[in-house]
Amino acid sequence: MQKTSNSGNHGKVATHGAAGRRWRIGLGAAAVALASGCTYIPQQRVAPGEVPILLGPSVRDNVTPMEGVLACFADHVAASARAPIVVSVGDVKDYTGKYSINEGNAITQGGALMVYSALGKLAGAVGVAERFDPVIAERELGYADRRQLGDGMTHRLGNNGSAQIVPWMPYFGGSIHKSDYYIVGGITELNYNINSGGFELAKNQVGPKARTFTASVGVDLRIVDTRSLVVRKTVSLTKQFHGYEVGLNVFRFFGSDLFDVDIGSKGQEPLQLGIRTALEEGVVRLLGTVTQVDPEPCLVLRPGSGAPLPTAIAEKLRTVPNPAPKAGDEPVAAAAGNVVNLARGGAGGAEASQAASQITFDVGSSTLGGAAMSTLDQIAALARKQTVDFILTARDTENWDARKRDALIDERLAAVVGALATRGLAAGAISVTWRPDAADTSIHRGDSGLQVIARLRIQGAAAPVAPAAAK
Length: 471
Fold this sequence. Notes:
16 strands, 6-stranded mixed β-sheet, elongated, Rossmann fold, 9 helices, disordered N terminus, disordered C terminus, alpha+beta
C-alpha cells in the first residue's frame, strides 16, 4: 500500500511539473508578444540579398511651442512698416560644463544654430547676416582678391581706353552687407532633479511603482549694437522639464522557479527641445527692444502645460507681408562700373580713380609676374586720364632684417617704375608717398595674408608732374 501510494504521489508531481512548464512557456510567449507589439517598427528590404532595414517616421519640420509666438511677432514687425533690421549671431555656448563619459555633453553644442533658425522662422521680417561661419565666403573673397576666382565666363572691366576682357570674376566693393545687431550668450544652467516624488508598493516582492521628477535649464542672451558694441538688452530665462516612470515588478519564487518580471514605461520632456524653445523666446524678447515692437501680446500664445504642439512652422502661419526692401539693399555688384579691384583683378571707370590698386611680389623676389604686368597695363591706361594711387605688397610670411628689406624695396620700386616707363609714363610722374623707415622692423599687414611695402602715386595727365620722392 505504501509503495502504491508513493507511486501515485510521484505521478501527481510529474503532472504538476508539466503543467507548470506549459504555464511558464505561455507566460513567456505572452511577454514577448507584448514587448514586440510595443516596439514594432516597419521594415523593408531595399535590394535582394540584403537584410531588411527599419523604417521610422518621415522627416518633418522641427516645430516648437513658440511657432505661434514667432509668427505673431513677425507679423507685428512687418505691420510696423519699418525697414527690416539685419541681425547676426555670435557664440551661444554651453557653459554648464555637464559631461558624461558615456553620453558626452548633456547640453547641445549648437545653441548658435538654434538662434539662427529662430531668426529664420521670422521669414524676412528681420534680416539675417552670416557671421558665425564665414570661412567659405572669406576664402572666395581671397581668391577674387588674387584674381583666381572665376565662373567659366569672361568679364569686361573698365571702359573706353582702360577696358579689358578677363577670365576672372571682378570683386565688387561693398557687396557684403553690414549687420545692425548681433546676439550672443549661452546655456548657463542645468539642474538635475530639482524635485521628485512617487510611491512603490509591494507584497512578497510583487507590486507597482511610480515616480515623477523635474529638472531645469537656464539661458542668458544679449543683443549688441554692431557699431557701438553697446548691449541693448539682456534676457535670462529658465525652463523646467518633467519626467515620469511607472511600472510593475515581480521578483519571487513560484514553487522552485524564480520569476523576475519588470513591466512599465518612462518618459521625459525632450531636454534639447526645451532649450530650443527657451532660446526662441529669448530671441523674441531681444528683438522686441531693437524693433520697438512689444512682444508681450504674442507671448500669451505660448501653449500651456499639456497643450499640443503646433503642426506648422511659424513661416507658414504668417499673415502680414513684409515691407519692401529699403533703398540700398541691392548688392553693390549690380551697379555698372563699380568694379574696384583694379589690381585685385580689374580696372574701374573714372569714378574708381581713388581706389588703391595692388602689385604683389613673390617672397624675396623683385620680378614682376604676368598678373602684375596686366595690372600695370590697367594702371597706365587709367593714369593717362587721372591721378592713380596704388600699393606694393608682399606675403606677410616675408620677414627680412631691416637692411635687406630696404634694399629689396628699392629693387621692387625700380622694377615698377621701369615697367611703367615702357608703357609711356615718365619716371618724374611717379612718386613714393610712403615706405617703411629703414629702421622700422614691423610688418604692415594688408589683406589676404599680405603686407604693404610701399605706396605710390602717378599724377594724371591734367595734374602737374611731381618729382619722384627721394628715399
